Amino acid sequence: MKLPGQDAIARQxxxxxVTHRVKLPRKLVERPIRQVGKRLAMALxxxxxxxxxxxxxxxxxxxxxxxxxxxxxxxxxSTVTLSTTGYGDITPVSDSARLTNILVITPLRVLFxxxxxxxxxxxxxxxxxxxxxxxRWRSTLRDHTVVVGFGTKGRSAIQTxxxxxxxxxxxxxxxxxxxxxxxxxxxxxxxVVGDATRSEVLRRAEVQRARxxxxxxxxxxxxxxxxxxxxxxxxxxxxxxxxREEENAPLLKQSGADAVITSASAAGRLLGMSxxxxxxxxxxxxxxxxxxxxxLIERPVIKAEVGKSPRETDDLVVSVxxxxxxxxxxxxxxxxxxxxxxxITIVRATPxxxxxxxxxxxxxx
Length: 365
What we know:
The protein is 45% helix and 17% strand. The protein contains 11 helices and 13 strands. It has helices at 6-15, 32-56, 71-82, 95-140, 152-163, 178-186, 199-204, 220-233, 249-255, 263-276, 278-288; strands spanning 21-23, 61-63, 90-92, 145-148, 171-175, 190-193, 212-215, 238-243, 259-262, 294-300, 316-322, 325-328, 342-348. The strands form 3 sheets. Strands 1-6-5-4-7-8-9 form a 7-stranded mixed sheet, with helices on both faces. Strands 10-13-11-12 form a 4-stranded antiparallel sheet, covered by helices on one side. Strands 2-3 form a two-stranded antiparallel ribbon. It is rod-shaped, with a radius of gyration of 33 Å. The model is unreliable at 8-18 and 355-365 (pLDDT under 50).
């Protein structure tokens, strides 16, 4: 099946290289341009103050050119003095002028240099610090979650996995929009700006070492290309993708997705259920909102539950995951629980409620 816009995406990828970069979450600081502007204003203020001080005592200075020192000469002398150039064509000759140079002009010169040199050192230090943070981040990142797309679906997916106990440091967002990545880093997530259909962009997100990958792009054809690229880089990760059209779901599974969610169909079913039974619609919406009300979680079978039926457990069991099969709670094959089984249960959400992830990938169809 040929998806709409697939040729256009391929042409765009061939025509120009997409720039990409990694952004780590950081504290809100002042913009660099504003910082430099403030430093320049301070340096200019020091220069103006020096000019006024020299001109106020201009009779105590001697100009080798014409002997007199006017306002322009005072500005010239202040400039070359603060910059430590010091041509010597204008010199202080009176005691008051020399004393002013010792007590006032010299400290102003030091302050002027601190402002200018400090700006350069801060830029170099910030660059070195950022490179060190990136290097340390890459070396320590393991078994993390990569989320492709920071739109409504991507944000909701992140909020859900965070509500189950995943730390923000273990989430990396990939999006072609710089504004989206800025929003992600502002919320505490690491971000990569770039086209996720390109392998080098996913490598920047360390997708080859990720445990799970969530693909929440705006277009189905983009989701297919991202899934193919991600599966090629990481054979063992669990990949979950969202598509708009149900007819594209099989193509996503063939591309390597373990699970495919049809967003349009799911929303339509929820709408239909809410029409038929508003209460049932509210319950379903509560179940998919992790961390509040009722939660649908997956957990392993404990030893005390081995040999019992799903109905005999303390939790409300919906399904039993046995190997590669998902069995209903009333399925005869799941009548007796085994130690290797996993239970999908409905529980009351509490701050300590967490989902124990299954690192085993689901079978490919």
